[in-house]
Every structure is written in structure tokens, then in C-alpha cells.
TrEMBL record, chain A:
Name this polypeptide is given: holo-[acyl-carrier-protein] synthase
Sequence ranges assigned to domain 4'-phosphopantetheinyl transferase N-terminal in this UniProt record: 44-133
Species name: Rehmannia glutinosa (Chinese foxglove)
EC numbers: 2.7.8.7
Alphabetically ordered keywords of this record: Transferase
Enzymatic class: transferase
Automatic annotation (TrEMBL), chain B:
All residue ranges annotated as the Carrier domain in the record: 56-131
PROSITE patterns: CARRIER (PS50075), PHOSPHOPANTETHEINE (PS00012)
Lineage: Eukaryota, Viridiplantae, Streptophyta, Embryophyta, Tracheophyta
Keyword terms: Chloroplast, Fatty acid biosynthesis, Fatty acid metabolism, Lipid biosynthesis, Lipid metabolism, Phosphopantetheine, Phosphoprotein, Plastid, Transit peptide
Family: Belongs to the acyl carrier protein (ACP) family.
Alphabetical list of PANTHER family matching this protein: ACYL CARRIER PROTEIN, ACYL CARRIER PROTEIN 2, CHLOROPLASTIC-RELATED
UniProt protein name: Acyl carrier protein
Function: Carrier of the growing fatty acid chain in fatty acid biosynthesis.
Length: 312, 133
């Protein structure tokens, strides 16, 4: 995957958002905020101000200041991010409307006078109390999930995996002897599975975790079954779905990143034109760290973004 | 069984198109009327539960498991009405909480049922329903 950006840092006056072009097909944009870096009360008030009453109340209902802050930043991030792409008249973060699809996946409710084709922008958000992220694509379903690298799992990893993951995934985890490494591989696998389910947009029970396997496939045919094999650079993340034969592996591509040294982020996007015989080359990914209205920094290719899988 | 709590003023969410619809799989109809403290007079909160609600012991056990999973401070007020979302449970927490409940009560919760649990009360009611079987 190629990571690059042209301008590193934008500073601009408050209440302005640097406009940006939609990602090209096969390209993904990822925007993230670290709540710890948003300290200004007036900025937080600005974020609260762009939310409609119902979203504002949902934020205020969260129990605890940290939770309220990350809930607020999640809504502010998604609104300001979509507004940047200036789709027709939707350049005001305040005026965007959202709804849920049939299965509960949030999407933009585009306002047009005629009932034209909706713009091809797709998005998905994920947040922890320490990082909030929003992924954007054009003409492709997207699902993302972020988790703290050092998140503690209260249950025994293998018991958890046996209960919720597929057999192949349990075998993969069981083969790891170091408990710390096992925990981190578990978290990576969790984020990949979450990202896939969110990309499908069918909800947690629409694609139960046990009904699909995420595994790492080498450039040469044949699977990699152990962690040692993964150290080889060229591996691709693929999904095998047991339940849904129409949901082919070739439909989806995955990236797994380490963000800001603190979080794992998994991105799952729809692939078009797959199976045409040419090698599946992962699309381009551009990552920005942002404080909406204040500062954007393109961090692709820096230490803030480490690509774990998805690299050629 | 109707329960009336006259002393507590609570904030109820304004229905919002983007908020996930939580469809409870239990037969509880729950209405709450409450007001935000605009005046010094407190407004009563009325809650009507049509079907049988879970025993307080079950609810308390769920609260204990939730507090542990989410590492909540002891003074955090968690009740049957508390939603997992507002307590800060993400999907991984929710799955761990369900696992904790399965272990504690010796039950097995299907994915569909797990997805419909929104509040502590929902979880307690589901547990008792599964225990009845």
C-alpha cells in the first residue's frame, strides 16, 4: 500500500475546515483525533454547537467526562470530515443529516431537491476513549475498528476465542506461546473481524464472528498457519465466510495499522474489479491526525502510522 | 407490577433518528416520564413494567459484573435502567460482559439475544428467561 501526502500540516483560523477531494476509487482516507490532545473548552463547545439536539443529548448522557468527550469527538469528527469533501451543498458540518440503514449501519442522508443518485461517499467510525477514527471511501463499503494495543482482556484468551472465533483462528492463537503476544494478536484479530462486520453493515448478529475466518495468506499459494510465517513481508489478509457463499473473499480487502504507537486500527473495504486475473494490489491509504477546526496533519509515512499488513 | 419512584429526576433521551433502535426481546413495556430540573420542584418518574421483571439479586449481580468489566469507580451509579452504551461499553466489552453472565449463571446466550440487550435490566431479564428453561 502506498502512503503519501503532499502537504503535511495545515493551520487555519478556527471554524474553518480545509476542503479536500474525495478519495479515488480503491483509495481510503483515514482521519483520527486523540481526545487527550483536545484541551480547549471553547473548542469542545464549538463541537457541541454543530450537533443537532438529539446528538447533543446522547453525548451528555454518557456517564463520565472521558466518555462524554470521546462521544462528542466522534460526532464532531464524522460531521467535520464529511463536510470537508464539500459534496454539492453539504459543506456545513452542522447541516448534515444521518440515518441508519436496514441493519443499523449509520449513513448520510443526502439532501437533494431531485431524487438523484446519492453521492458515492462511504464512511465508518470507531472510537475508544483514547482515539476516535473515521474512514472514508468512494464507491466502496467500509468498516473500521480501533482498539488500544494494551487493552486488557478479562477472560482467558483461548476460552474467549473458542466461544466466539472460528476453529482456524483458535488454532492460530493457540499456537502462540507468549501470553502478551497472544493477547496482542487476539486484539488484532478482533479489530479485523469487527471491521469486516461493520463493512458488511449487517450488524453483529448478521455475520456472527464464528461464521467467518480471517487469516493471512502468502504471496505463494498456501496459508500461513503460524505467527512465525507472518514475519514474511508479503502476506495478505483474507476472509473466508462459511455461511454466505456469495460473500467472496475477493470482495474485501483489509489493512491493519498501528496508530500513534497506541492503537491497532483495522480497515476493511470493498474491492471492485476483483478476479480479473490481475494481482490484487492494495489501494492507497492516506492518514490524517486532526483537531477539527484547528489543525490537520498528514501522518502517512511517518512513525504515527505503521502498516502491519497490507503492504506489498 | 408497577413501580413508582418519586424521588429521582432522570433525563430521558430524545428519540433520534440516528440512535440505534433497541428492541428488547422481553415482554416489558416501559414508559418513563421525567423532566430536567428547570424548577426547584422535582417531577416524579413513573415506570410501568407489564411483564415480570427480574429479581433484584439478578440485577445486582449483573451490575457487579458490568462494573468489573468496565472498571467503573465504586461510586458510579449503575442501576437497572443504565444502558451499556452510556456506561462506555464497546462491542468487545459487551461480548465480555455476556461471557461473564454466561459463566456466572451457567447459561448460553445467542448472538441475536445478545444484540438486543441495551440495559442492565434487559440483561437481567434475559438471564432469568434463560434460567426458566
Amino acid at each position: 500500500m502506498k502512503l503519501h501526502c503532499f502537504e503535511r500540516t495545515f493551520f487555519h483560523s478556527s471554524s474553518s475546515l480545509t476542503p479536500i477531494q474525495l478519495p479515488a476509487p480503491m483509495e481510503t482516507h483515514l482521519w483520527y483525533v486523540k481526545p487527550s490532545e483536545v484541551r480547549s473548552e471553547s473548542l469542545l463547545d464549538q463541537y457541541l454547537d454543530i450537533l443537532p439536539p438529539c446528538e447533543r443529548e446522547n453525548v451528555l448522557q454518557m456517564r463520565g467526562e472521558e466518555l462524554r468527550k470521546s462521544a462528542l469527538l466522534a460526532r464532531a469528527l464524522v460531521r467535520t470530515t464529511i463536510a470537508r469533501y464539500q459534496i454539492n451543498s453539504h459543506s456545513n458540518p452542522r447541516s448534515l443529516k444521518f440515518r441508519k440503514n436496514l441493519h443499523g449501519k449509520p449513513e448520510v442522508q443526502w439532501q437533494f431537491r431531485d431524487d438523484r443518485h446519492p453521492p458515492p461517499l462511504h464512511f465508518n467510525i470507531s472510537h475508544t476513549s483514547s482515539l476516535v477514527a473515521c474512514g472514508v471511501t468512494t464507491n466502496a463499503q467500509i468498516g473500521i475498528d480501533v482498539e488500544e494495543k494494551h487493552r486488557s482482556i478479562k477472560h482467558n484468551i483461548l476460552s474467549f476465542a473458542r466461544r466466539y472465533f472460528s476453529k482456524h483462528e483458535v488454532q492460530f492463537l493457540a499456537a502462540i506461546s507468549d501470553p502478551q503476544v497472544q493477547r496482542m494478536e487476539f486484539i488484532k484479530l478482533w479489530t479485523l473481524k469487527e471491521a469486516y462486520v461493520k463493512a458488511l453493515g449487517k450488524g453483529f448478529s448478521g455475520a456472527p464472528f464464528k461464521t467467518f475466518t480471517i487469516r493471512f495468506k502468502g504471496v505463494m499459494e498456501g496459508g500461513f498457519n503460524t505467527l512465525e510465517d507472518l514475519s514474511l513481508k508479503a502476506s495478505e489478509i483474507v476472509v473466508d465466510s462459511f455461511d454466505d457463499p456469495t460473500d467472496l473473499t475477493s470482495n474485501w480487502q483489509f489493512s491493519l495499522l498501528e496508530l500513534a504507537n497506541s492503537h491497532y486500527a483495522a480497515i476493511c473495504t470493498e474491492k471492485h474489479g476483483a478476479g480479473s486475473g490481475k494481482r490484487n494490489s492494495p489501494g492507497k491509504l492516506t492518514v490524517w491526525k486532526t483537531v477539527p477546526f484547528l489543525e490537520d496533519e498528514c501522518v502517512s509515512g511517518t512513525a504515527a502510522v505503521k502498516v502491519i499488513h497490507g503492504v506489498q | 407490577m408497577a413501580s413508582f419512584t418519586a424521588s429521582h429526576v432522570s433525563f430521558s433521551a430524545v428519540p433520534c433518528s440516528f440512535k440505534q433502535n433497541q428492541v428488547s426481546n422481553s415482554r416489558i413495556a416501559s414508559l418513563s416520564f421525567s423532566g430536567k430540573g428547570f424548577s426547584s420542584r422535582k417531577l416524579p418518574v413513573l415506570r410501568f413494567r407489564v411483564a415480570c421483571a427480574a429479581k433484584p439479586e439478578t440485577v445486582n449481580k449483573v451490575i457487579e459484573i458490568v462494573k468489573k468489566q468496565l472498571a467503573l469507580p465504586e461510586d458510579r451509579d449503575v442501576s437497572g435502567e443504565s444502558t451499556f452504551a452510556t456506561l462506555g461499553a464497546d462491542s468487545l466489552d459487551t461480548v465480555e460482559i455476556v461471557m461473564g453472565l454466561e459463566e456466572e449463571f451457567g447459561i448460553s446466550v445467542e448472538e441475536e439475544s445478545a444484540q438486543s440487550i441495551a440495559t442492565v435490566q434487559d440483561a437481567a431479564d434475559l438471564i432469568e428467561k434463560l434460567l426458566e428453561k
